[in-house]
């Protein structure tokens, strides 16, 4: 997983908890990389999973909640660092529908070693998008947070229904109410 995900995560932990909490979860998990993450480096995604687990133990906030909050947070960061992806996109559903063929397709050009999930997106009607998420890394909670963060960014009211169909497939049904 790209270092930018780790640096954004640790920045969020510092912002929402403290710098000591960052040190504590690194000490707790003793990541093989040594936790000297650089934005362009690539690291084992399990280091992130372990730090989330450690943060969850220390804060008594469930791990899935923490990952969803992180997903929302990181969308706003990505929207700033990759503003070019948002130009001319009218609303959250239009953006989300292009996640596989436009957004992540550009991401892989920028970072050829990125490990991206698969999204199969289908409009049911103008205001309803079904997104089938598949990834061996099982970051459906992150996807959920990113979808919600995307809605907030566009000022759209979204409902996100989630169906964990099996371990490797989660279906999100995203409805936009201000269509
Ligand atoms: C400007 C917007 C976005 C940018 C620049 C972006 C970029 C990235 C990057 C760089 C990674 C890390 C890849 C790696 O570590 O190897 C990633 C992973 C991921 N992205 Fe995006 N992304 C964006 C929006 C979204 C949205 C809206 C969603 C959800 C619909 C999403 C879902 C995910 C998920 C779930 C992962 C984790 C990897 C996995 O599940 O296997 N991304 N993205």
UniProtKB/TrEMBL annotation:
Single Gene Ontology MF annotation: heme binding
Any matching Pfam family: HNOB
InterPro entries recorded: H-NOX_domain_sf, Heme_NO-bd, NO_sig/Golgi_transp_ligand-bd
Segments forming domain Heme NO-binding: 2-160
The protein's name in its UniProt record: Heme transporter CcmB
Organismal lineage: Bacteria, Pseudomonadati, Pseudomonadota, Gammaproteobacteria, Thiotrichales
């Amino acid at each position: 997983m790209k270092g930018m995900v780790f640096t954004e995560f640790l920045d969020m932990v510092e912002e929402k908890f403290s710098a000591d909490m960052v040190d504590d979860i690194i000490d707790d998990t003793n990541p093989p990389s040594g936790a000297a993450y650089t934005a362009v480096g690539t690291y084992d995604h399990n280091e992130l999973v372990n730090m989330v687990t450690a943060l969850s133990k220390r804060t008594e906030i469930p791990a899935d909640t923490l990952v969803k909050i992180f997903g929302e947070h990181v969308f706003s960061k990505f929207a700033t660092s990759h503003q070019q992806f948002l130009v001319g996109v009218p609303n959250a559903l239009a953006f989300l529908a292009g996640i596989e063929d436009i957004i992540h397709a550009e991401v892989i050009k920028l970072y050829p070693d990125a490990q991206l999930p698969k999204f199969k997106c289908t409009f049911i009607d103008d205001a309803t998008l079904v997104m089938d998420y598949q990834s061996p890394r099982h970051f459906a909670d992150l996807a959920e947070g990113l979808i919600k963060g995307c809605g907030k960014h566009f000022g759209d009211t979204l409902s996100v229904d989630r169906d964990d169909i099996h371990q490797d497939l989660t279906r999100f049904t995203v409805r936009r109410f201000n269509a």
